[in-house]
Records
---
Amino acid sequence: MQGLRRCSNDVVQLDLSTTVTTTNTSSTSLSIDVEESVETKIQRLITEHPVIIFTRSSCCMCHVMKKLLATIGVNPTVIELDDHEIAALPSSSEDGLFIGGACVGGLESLVALHVSGHLVPKLVQVGALWV
């Protein structure tokens, strides 16, 4: 499908500059409106998914974030962005983890949340984890 490419079983590369109607990846639905800007598409994806990671294909830290979340029982939506699309993220980091629509940051911030005991309650609060 144009604009959407599966990179592995749990990563989808999404070209936000092209037109994609609706597609299903596992249990996650990604829909893109033709008229939306890259920034609007990213913001909509953030609001539609309780846990979403935006990353570059070359970033190994994304893999570590996914593994940490998976050990807790959460399977985040992972979107690989091109260099020009990374600049459209509403955060200053090159990789962006968003939980419940709020930017958490990168791996260091995720680990800090986990070690402090705040990660699981936050995931439960946004409906990404049931305990």
---
Amino acid sequence: MAVFPSKKFRSSSYNSTIPARYRAALARHPFALFGLPFIATMLLGSFFLTPATALRYERHDRKVRQLSKDEELGIGKDKRKIDMREEYYKLAAKDLDNWEQKRVKRLPGEPDGVL
């Protein structure tokens, strides 16, 4: 069985090319030629992408704004204000002892009994 050499064959003209010199320098200084450019790319990318992400959230904030309590309830200038005491006295004036149970009409196809 043949034994394959661990070193790849490269021609003599390959040693003078830029990739060959980079590969040799990378073996001697791996962090300076690979790690440092990678970290620099990540940091610069973070700084350049920050305005883009800020713009995204600003557009979202323009669409979704916080409403006041009146706007949430749908009470405008033309509608009356609700007074809690007045509503309480209206409910207290109703006769809650005399009431009649009324059956709600079912939709077609809806089951009539209890589940």
---
Amino acid sequence: MTFMHLTFYATFMLSSLGLAFHRTHLISALLCLESMMLSMYIALSMWPVYTQTASLTLMPILTLAFSACEAATGLAILVASARTHGSDHLHNLNLLQC
């Protein structure tokens, strides 16, 4: 395993651990999701360089598009929950109260 692979795996795992353990604010959960998507984007964009192929050059662009859609949806949910509940604390959000 090269240093670059270790860096991508560590970044993804630290982001997923941050998502699992720091669930107090919605913005921190969104930032962890965005860092996971960023590490996946960088890994997918560096993968054709390591394998010296050009067949999967569309995958990073699709990942970036899905990441932008995820960020827009997450920010819309953040704004909506801040307007209705008054804060972005995740313990205030309950599906049974809707």
